[in-house]
Amino acid sequence: MNNLQQIMQMGQQLQTRMTKLQESLGSQQITASSGGGMVSATVDGKGDVKEVRIDPTCVDKDDVEMLEDLVVAAVSQAQTKARQVYDEEMKKAAGGFPIQIPGLL
User: Which CATH superfamily is domain 2-93 in?
Assistant: First the structure.
């Protein structure tokens, strides 16, 4: 019976750490750029896009496709970085056990 209580306590502690981690990830800002910095994208630690910045010098009405590609590249890189941060933080919080929370990245 004592082992069951210990397991329950560990589960509650893990749940508390995961809740704090989710809150922390929501407040983190991760930025990546493309085109030599002409386009940058900022996402939160969950990968949600928060901001896109475009250098006006790369806006060319005759080459919108290039700008679109740069935006996609910057957002993708920022989201990849956010997934890496998420994975690292989850490993720390879970004490090395592989845990995934549905709905996050």
Answer: Nucleoid-associated protein YbaB-like domain (3.30.1310.10)
